Amino acid sequence: MQNLLLLAVCFGAGMLLRRSGRVPEGGHAALNAFIIHVSLPALILLHLQRAPLTGAVIASAGVAWVLFALSAAFFLVVGRAARLAPQTVGALTLTGGLANTSFVGIPMIEAFYGNGGVALGLVIDQLGSYLALATLGILIAAFYSGDRFCAQKVVRKIATFPPLIAVVAAFALRPCEYPEVMTALLTRLGDTLAPLALASVGMQLRLSELKGYRSKLAIGLAFKLVLGPALILGLVLAAFGVESQGTRIMLFEAAMAPMIGAAIVASEHRLDPPLTALMVGIGIPLSFLTVPAWFFVLERV
Q1: 31, 42, 43, 53: least CB-packed within 10 angstroms?
Q2: CA distance 208 to 187
Q3: Could you tell me the CA-to-CA distances from 140 to 175, 228, 266, 276 in Å, in that order?
Q4: CA distance 83 to 233
Q5: Domain limits at 125?
Q6: Is residue 22 part of a domain?
């Protein structure tokens, strides 16, 4: 509960700072740059370097990729049927297909499944959600951004995306033991991610724009919080069932709110920034109702 309270306070602080005029217009961009280049790589280097990597655990991370693929297909079809702008389709694909498996997901796992499920949650987060964002997410963001699509430029963006570099470095450093000072440094830097990310979203959120985005927001959140997890549950049931707690945690993570990092990447590529802010700003509080409902369902399947 302490982590969730922190999210709420930082989100509200971001909104208040923007309303007070103490932060210049576009001030969130500086926070986003720090998150992408410092906070997130530090978190990846800290946790992925020592996370357990069994076959079953790695397979669990694959669910995040499947959910993202389903999102891309769903919003492509919906976008064409509803004649949505490419930037809107891109925003919905990123925020509707990538779950907040860390800052909402990890506290939720602790609350509903205990500390024993946190390690699995971290691997799903790093090898699933964030690795998908660092590769396919950048590709989709570039495709829908409206800029001239250049394969060489996109490959360069993916290869130089700091979180992906951190993933590669974390794997290379797995045989090593971090010095205590490095662990402490990475911990402190990684801890800045959640408060800065929520403050950034709060700065971008304008509830006055909700009226013009209600239908798009409803479609995006309906997929992320209800339809997407239901499709994943159906696929898992058809394949091997949900008898183990690890499988339940994997499905539980798929039901989380939209990913803050995905909203930041979408915003940086000018993918309908008001909609991306609303998806996170409305989706996270709403998930406090839908996620417990999914726990109830998973425990009774």
Answers
A1: 53
A2: 37
A3: 34, 18, 9, 15
A4: 30
A5: 2-11+28-298
A6: no
